[in-house]
Design goal:
The complex is a heterodimer of chains A (311) and B (256). Chain A is α/β, with parallel strands linked by helices and 311 residues long. Chain A has two domains: 2-222, Lambda Exonuclease, Chain A; 229-293, no CATH class. Helices cover 44% and strands 18% of the residues of chain A. Chain A has eleven helices and eight strands. In chain A, strands 1, 2, 3, 4, 5 and 6 form a six-stranded mixed β-sheet that branches. A two-stranded antiparallel ribbon of chain A has the order 7-8. The two termini of chain A are 47 Å apart. Helices cover 50% and strands 17% of the residues of chain B. Chain B is elongated. Chain A binds chain B through residues 4, 8, 11, 14, 41-45, 202-203, 206, 209, 211-213, 215, 217-223, 225, 306, 308-309, and chain B through 32, 35, 38-39, 42, 61, 64, 67-79, 93, 99-100, 119-120, 133, 135-136, 138-139, 141-143, 180.
Chain lengths: 311, 256
Amino acid sequence: MIVDRILESKKPQLYPVHSNRASELGHECLRYLVYNRTRWQEKAKPSPNLMLKLAIGNAFETMVLRDLIDAGIQVIEQQRPFTWDKYKITGYIDAKVKIDDKIYLLEIKTCNSHIFNTLKSVESIKNHKLHYVRKYISQITLYLLLAGYEEGILLFKDTGTGNMKEFLVQLDYELAESLIKKAEAVNKHVETGTVPEPVSDFSVCSYCPFTHICLPERKADELDIITDPELDELLHKRQELKRYVEEFEEIDKKVKDKILTLEKDKLVIGKFLLEIKHIKKTLYEVPEEIKRQFATAKEYKQLKITVLEED
Amino acid sequence: MNQLKIVEENGGIVSYDILLSAVKEAESRIEAINKIKKIALKVTNSGDWVDMGGKPYLQSSGAEKIARLFGISWRIEEPLFEQEEDGHFSYTYKGFFSFKSITIEAIGVRSSRDPFFRRYDKQGNPLPPSEIDKGDVKKAAYTNCIANGITRLLGIRNLTWEDLAEAGLKKDSITSIGYRKELTDMHQKVAAALTTLAGNDETKKKELLKQVTAFTDQKGVLHAGKELIEELSEKQAQVAYGKLKAIIEQQKRESK
């Protein structure tokens, strides 16, 4: 009775798209960006439930802005629109804030706890497994470039717990250049009425509102179901021992915590001699900007073992 | 006579071997299907399922997760759009799905007649098919095709709540899809009256309903009747039932 009416009122409308939105230019599929401009009216609309979720995000953003003011942070501008006619780029900057006499561009993002916990650094956002999270750095990069700032802040709010975390983002000229080139490529396709190839990463297609008109062909590596008694037995043994490892780690932590509270370097308890050694370690606390200069992308293999049936 | 007996015995032994190997093959096939079922269910979560009319239904999000794990490839053809005279329309997608050298064909069809797409005005009356979003129906037909292809290829259609429970997916954590407008008692009465008059002839039922729901307003404007019971408001259903009841009674009198 009530919910149905609310959902009905949340049916989204589609509007013509005449520009490349800064929030979208980080999208990895050029075809998506072109369709966004040329076939926007065929875009699958978000469901009313998703609209409700997005509304929560907007409400949280307003809440964050209020929190900033309550904390004495000077909010200079809010929701300032900008356009860059040459490349047909448009966007809205959430806010500009003044902290210790320095002005920063601020982009507020809301996410669930699961995503929130995966955000550890700017690099973790850039390389995030969810393609729409990866776009955030591109978005703030374009804002920085257009507004002429060197640094901006990505502020995340966990919609589940209310926790917040911030990341200082430096203007990456290389990334900015690539985004402008992308905007140029989209504009050219729009003018000439051509359609580029879709992205080859199918995980991007899974959430795409244009798959029903793009019809991407999917070619995948097939899963093998094998029989290997030796490996099977080892996996069973591994599984059996795993719970003991977990139990050991839990007890080990409890023991260490308790001994440390006793503040003695040597102790005997029953048949156990307990000794605490003081070890000196040199730590190198390298600033983020220097660390980044030596960063290289490496691919490694990670094994995940899931138990399909309990014994 | 003896020769005939030997043939019978030999025949019996051969049949037994064939039967045994067929049983073994069937057993290993069942085992494989069960394994596939377990693997498939393990990668989905409650958000990937909906309770549709009391049965678990895998949504395309879940089907795609399963496809990613198994490595299913597919190719989808351009859709077929069909426009009907009454304004309703449908989209049909055809796709080819492959896994382990097996390729199957699957289709996905969605129609504007599906109550799921129906829209209502502020008074709760259904809006005409022209108000139904073509993009929504088209996208739904596409995802329906993907989900059908994947589940058919892996033989995991028609899973039960027990299957889901074994994989730790609880029924009460799965969203139930209900259509906005349930048929009221009065709508049910209209449906029963139509069956009395037209049996199982759906076309005749539509004609009859259209006939009893058409009306001329005070300004003398004729309003076309409705063909679908779900499209009737409670009041319209009441009026339609009155008219249908009168026809039934008249037919009874005439037959006497």
